[in-house]
Amino acid sequence: MNELEHTSYERTEGASHRPISNARLAVLVLLGAEIMFFAGLIGTFLVFRLGSVTWPPPSQADVRLPIGITGLNTIVLLLSGYTVFQGLRAIRQDRQRELRNWLFATGLLGIIFLVVQGSEWVRLVHHGFTLSSGVYGSVFYVLIGCHALHVLVAVLWLLAVFAKTVAGRFSGNHYVGVEVCAIYWAFVVVLWPLLYVLVYLI
Amino acid sequence: MIDRYFSFIIGILVLALLIPTVAEACPSCKTMDDPIVQGFKWSILFLMAMPYIVSGLIGGGVFYVYYRTHRTDNRKPPSNVKGV
After folding, report:
1. N or C, which end of chain A is more exposed by having fewer CB within 10 Å?
2. Per-residue DSSP letters for A88-141?
3. Nearest CB partner across the interface for B81, out of A15, A25, A35
4. Given this model, what pLDDT does residue A21 score?
5. Do B66 and A11 count as a contact with CB atoms less than 8 A apart?
């Protein structure tokens, strides 16, 4: 049974009896695990942050995190959340060319986010603020680094979906691949403002 | 043979009782004014709540999709259901 036949079978026979498709359920469970992973990291941050009388610790008092440029970067990532949602809306209405454009814009915004984050990290490392710069450096690089790694994975996933879109593999009746990728993208977008406020502003 | 082991264990226990030291295994068993206690407290509360929030979100999401699919099924024939 090829993919189209399988999709057709699911649509006519199985879909009305199944509350949610396997792919959607899988990505939801994956996101549950991801949320718990980041909850652990945030819990660690809370212990160190609330356990310190002064933050940053006195030994790292001269470190200035790039609040402004990262704030702008936050807007870039939030904008990518809007574009991926528009792409999903487009394919639901079988507008494949629009999906291609929105996915391209989303990927571009994700890459801009990663490049800006990377350049700011290089600047901080040159300033002497590294992973081994005490609790402050460890918490910052692990928390923000894990998110950046997730954005990188999301960009790679999006590129794979984009390639399949160019090949015409999605339609108004078959777009679950776009949808699960969009759900994952939404996760990394929604998570970032929380991390930004916790690590950069508080 | 057994008596020898028993005596050895009793000897260890007596020795442990003779040289007591303070051991704090619980980070929260201190005064509540200590900042590290506040840090642990909020971290524990946050992590304790998170599984319920995650399972609630996933359960709510599945219920919403199920509700929406059934509403769509009532309006349209099954062949028009999209995005499976």
Report:
1. N
2. HHHHHTT-HHHHHHHHHHHHHHHHHHHHHHHHHHHHHHHTT--TTSHHHHHHHH
3. A15
4. 83
5. no
Q: Do B58 and A28 make contact, defined as CB atoms within 8 angstroms?
A: yes
Tell me what pLDDT residue A53 has.
Answer: 85
Residue B18 lies in a domain: no
Question: Number of structural domains, chain B?
Answer: 1
Closest Cβ opposite residue A39 in set B50, B55, B57? B50
Based on C-alpha coordinates, what's the Rg of chain A?
20
pLDDT score for B64: 84
Residues forming a β-bridge with A174: A171
Output the pLDDT for position A1. Answer: 42
Residues B43, A21: C-beta atoms closer than 8 Å: no
Q: Residue B27: is its pLDDT beyond 50?
A: yes
- The answer to whether the CB atoms of A28 and B62 lie below 8 A apart is yes
Closest-CA distance of chain A to residue B33, Å:
11
Q: Is residue B9 part of a domain?
A: no
Residues in chain A predicted with pLDDT less than 50, given as ranges, are 1-14
Q: Domains in chain A, start-ordered, CATH in brackets? A: 3-201 (1.20.120.80)
Residue B13, in any domain of the structure: no
State whether residue A43 sits within 8 Å of chain B by CB: yes
Predicted pLDDT at A89: 94
> Residue B48 sits in which domain range?
26-80
Interatomic CA distance for residues A99 and A80, integer angstroms: 13
Higher pLDDT, A94 or B82: A94
Interatomic CA distance for residues A77 and A191, integer angstroms: 10
Q: What pLDDT sits at residue A184?
A: 96
Question: B16 in a domain, yes or no?
Answer: no
